[in-house]
Each structure stands twice: as C-alpha cells, then as structure tokens.
Please model this.
Amino acid sequence: PFARWVARLETRRQGFRGFDGLQVLALLAVEAFLMVCSVSNNLVQVNQLVSI
Model:
C-alpha cells in the first residue's frame, strides 16, 4: 500500500505544475491527517475487539 501511495504522489506531483508549493503541502497535510485518523480509528476498533 505504501508503494502505491508513493506512486500516486509522484503522478499527482507531475500534475501540480500549475499549483504552488503551499497548496501541494496543504493537500499532503490533509491526506496525512486523514491517514492518521483512519489508522487510529482502526486501532481503537481492534482494542475494543480484544477487550471483549
């Protein structure tokens, strides 16, 4: 999954020539934030399953 994410970033970056760097950074930050949120949600669900 990580390799696929990097490849997606590469293709996305090539399409970003019309954007400025701040917009790219903002989008990356949002994507990273969403990824962290989904990971932490999964961990919470796993912990709830284990504690049952």
